Automatic annotation (TrEMBL):
One of its GO terms (cellular component) is cytosol. The lineage of its organism: Bacteria, Bacillati, Actinomycetota, Actinomycetes, Pseudonocardiales. SUPFAM superfamilies: FMN-binding split barrel. Pfam families: PNPOx_N. GO terms for molecular function: coenzyme F420 binding; oxidoreductase activity, acting on the CH-CH group of donors. InterPro entries: F420H2_bilvrd_red/Heme_oxyg, Pyridox_Oxase_N, Split_barrel_FMN-bd. Keywords: Oxidoreductase. The keyword Oxidoreductase applies. It comes from the Bacteria. Residues 27-111 form the Pyridoxamine 5'-phosphate oxidase N-terminal domain. PANTHER family: HEME OXYGENASE HI_0854-RELATED. This is Pyridoxamine 5'-phosphate oxidase family protein.
């Protein structure tokens, strides 16, 4: 399993772009899951970085979380409305597993409240998905070129430059 902390150490360029774009959009990303009929589903999500791990947590009972319960594979894309991608762009993919730890859930809810004012303290969570990151990529636009950075576990980041 690759946690956020491990990913950030192994893929600093991609993780920096992801973290910057994630923050710039108010934590909004687009989550890709697989529907029960096998077709992809794209849904908005506000993933959270907490205690060195990436969490995909949200409103219970939604189809995106039913998808993940059935098939834990996902892709997470930083939201952008800029066709020129001047601030960069990043994608992560992997699998999730449900973490059943009420003390962790409450620490997370307290941190969420402290950061945003959104109060989930004291609530129980149906699912609490931690991301196991198995790959990532980012794009950056330079002077007349596009740099695509790719990472897989056990390998260094690799940059492909397109002119």
């Amino acid at each position: 399993m690759t946690t956020w902390t491990e990913f950030a150490a192994a893929a600093p360029r991609i993780s920096e772009i992801f973290a910057r774009r994630h923050s710039a959009t108010g934590n909004l990303c687009m989550l890709a899951t697989l529907r029960s009929d096998g077709f992809p589903r794209i849904s908005p999500l506000e993933p959270r970085l907490f205690e060195g791990r990436l969490w995909l947590v949200g409103m219970p009972g939604t189809t995106k979380f039913k998808d993940l319960a059935r098939d834990p594979r996902f892709c997470l894309h930083t939201a952008t409305a800029d066709p020129q991608v001047t601030e960069g762009d990043a994608k992560l993919w992997g699998t999730v597993h449900d973490v059943r730890d009420p003390a962790l859930h409450q620490r997370w809810a307290t941190a969420l409240y402290d950061e945003t004012g959104f109060d989930l303290r004291g609530q129980e969570f149906d699912t609490f998905y931690e991301a196991d990151i198995v790959g990532g990529s980012s794009v950056e636009v330079g002077d007349g070129h596009l740099d695509i950075t790719v990472w897989k576990p056990g390998e260094p980041e690799r940059v492909v430059r397109k002119h």
